[in-house]
Amino acid sequence: MAQPQSDTGRACAAPRDAERAPGASAAISVCIVCRNEADRLADCLASVAWADELIVMDLSSEDGSAALARRHGARVLSRAPFPIVEPLRNELAAAATGEWVLALDPDERCAAGLASELRRLSARPDLHAIVIPRMNWDFGYPPSHPVQRYEPQLRMYRRAAVSWPVVPNALPAVPEQHTYRLPDRDDLVIVHIRNRTIPESLERAMRYAPAQAQSMVDQGQVFTAAGMLAALARQVDKEFFRGQAWKDGVPGLLRAVTLVAYKLYVWAALWQLSGARRSSADDRLVWRLGVLLVTLRQALRVAGAPYRLARRLLGGG
């Protein structure tokens, strides 16, 4: 990867670990990767103005993102565009001066209570990572169920102890004894303005799904219809049933549909990357599923026949 170029911005004001008094908080560097997200970046930077250092890696934005970041006191690193953020996390963290890194995206912002809590936790020598609940807003509304309202995200970590995996949508693995999990509270979340519009959700899927499928291929995963259907069933269970999507009305339903559709896109991309082959085993499974669905549909029609007859007899149409 090409190395980023840096300009001068806010310096890290806190003392180094060796010079820090016992119990004193360590320096926190907020690291953000950005491309053409000036309309989101201002709120993100304003929510972490308390940090010791702000660094924005700007991927050749054309909307003034870099200039906006500088106006908020951030140090800006410039590099060529890259489709996904994960491979850039370590590159950006290497440029930080703080002992701790808080990794954010431009569409995220820290709730009011995080500043003091993260300061307090940064002073603990036994910790290497802090898991922060993330509240995912979609189509203008926050979720009510904890599955999406308090999604655990390892986002703050000690630079010397943790590195970021390059797999899309993956998080670092840190032993539990060195990890602190913040409680599920609205004042301790990262607010994630994930999908503001349907086109935005489609653009995100088009960027991330093929990259995630490629990472599955790189890890040796082989496409099967059984694997795809099992993954989709788990996603449906999580978003619709465990997440109780219906309780959030139309926005909740659209959120669930969007997330399930993304999972389908990932597996469709995996199928194509695997050669788009048709196997007899896959055909048999899909045929059986089709027979099951047709049978279920017929059973529902038969079960509803008495109701339809009663409506006709009572003049209900």
User: What average pLDDT do the residues reach?
Assistant: 88
Strand content: 15-25%
Number of helices: 9
| Count of extended strands | 10
Question: Helical proportion?
Answer: 40-55%
Unreliable stretches: 8-19
Explain how this protein is built.
It is a single chain. This protein has 317 residues and is of the alpha/beta class. The chain is built from nine helices and ten strands. Strands 1, 2, 3, 4, 5, 6, 7, 8, 9 and 10 form a ten-stranded mixed sheet that branches. Helix 2 links the parallel strand 3 and strand 4. Helix 1 runs parallel beside helix 2, helix 6 packs parallel to helix 8 and helix 7 runs antiparallel to helix 8. The longest helix has 34 residues. The radius of gyration is 24 Å and the shape is globular.
What is this entry, summarized?
The chain has nine helices and ten strands.
SSE blueprint and pairings:
Layout: E1 5-6, E2 28-34, H1 38-47, E3 53-58, H2 65-71, E4 75-78, H3 86-93, E5 100-104, E6 108-110, H4 114-122, E7 129-138, H5 146-149, E8 151-158, E9 179-181, E10 190-195, H6 198-218, H7 225-242, H8 249-273, H9 280-313
Parallel strand pairs: 2-3, 2-5, 3-4, 7-9, 7-10
Antiparallel strand pairs: 1-4, 5-8, 6-10, 7-8
Helix pairs in contact: 1-2, 6-8, 7-8
List the main descriptive attributes of the protein structure presented here:
alpha/beta, 10-stranded mixed beta sheet, about 15% strand
